[in-house]
Design goal:
The protein is mainly beta. The chain contains two helices and 14 strands. The strands form three sheets. The protein has a five-stranded mixed β-barrel. Strands 7-10-11-13-14 form a five-stranded mixed sheet, with no helix packed on it.
């Protein structure tokens, strides 16, 4: 994926080495950034699964970094993360060994979307955000957005509206809420988020989803079709 946010992250990020993607050195490898699923981790390293876009083949990336030692009790197998890395092959989405530069947690962590209603969620009440990207990779729906507020997140969930569950295009609602701790300083923070839509995507009558979120600029839903990737970037 491309155009990842570079402003302050309000998530746990672990860096393993410094990098300078703006270097003029022609011998410096390209730095890649992707949403990924953490498949394995132990003292000898970790493996990730990544996909280029909606229906592309998944590839496996392997790293020698001990991420649990670097950040104990932060990461777990099956979690959705965002990784920055060099590929030893020199190409993205080919699989194989990588040099892991940074790994970042995501909101949602790859959990399944939750079924709810407008009544239960106070009409999908959410703090205002600025959405930069909505896109599907395989079984997951991924987001990049910013929010002006404190660094503390009270809630961030992706709901499917129970009343539209059997529609050809069910409604998904991203609900974000800041803790509004007035003792904390405020700034603009960037977030990555990812949820599993595997069960929803398997429904036989489904043709896609309409994704709603509280963005003052982008008022309409983002439509993610089942057969065609239509990300907002």
């Amino acid at each position: 994926m491309k155009n990842f946010l570079t402003i302050a992250l309000a998530l746990i990020a672990v860096a393993f080495t410094s990098c300078n993607s703006n270097s003029d050195d022609p011998n410096q490898p390209d730095v890649y950034t992707d949403f990924a699923t953490l498949l394995t981790m132990n003292s000898e390293g970790c493996t990730f699964q990544v996909q280029k876009d909606a229906n592309s083949d998944a590839v496996i990336l392997t790293s020698k970094e001990n991420i649990d030692k670097a950040a104990p009790n932060t990461f777990k197998v099956g979690m959705r993360v965002v990784i920055m890395y060099y590929s030893e092959s020199g190409m993205q989405y080919t699989g194989g060994p990588i040099q892991l530069l940074r790994i970042t947690t995501t909101l949602g962590e790859g959990a399944p979307v939750e079924v709810s209603t407008s009544e239960k969620t106070n009409k999908w009440a959410s703090d205002q955000i600025t959405m930069y990207m909505v896109g599907r990779t395989g079984d997951y729906l991924n987001f990049q957005f910013t929010h002006y507020g404190t660094v503390n997140v009270k809630e961030c969930k992706l709901y499917v509206d129970e009343e539209t569950l059997d529609d050809e295009y069910p409604h998904l609602h991203l609900v974000y809420e800041d803790k509004n701790d007035h003792m904390q300083s405020t700034s603009t923070y960037a977030y990555y988020a990812s949820w599993s839509i595997k069960d929803l995507w398997a429904r036989p009558n489904l043709k896609g989803v309409n994704v709603y979120f509280a963005d003052l600029v982008n008022q309409g839903p983002v439509v993610i079709k089942k057969t065609v990737l239509t990300p907002m970037e």
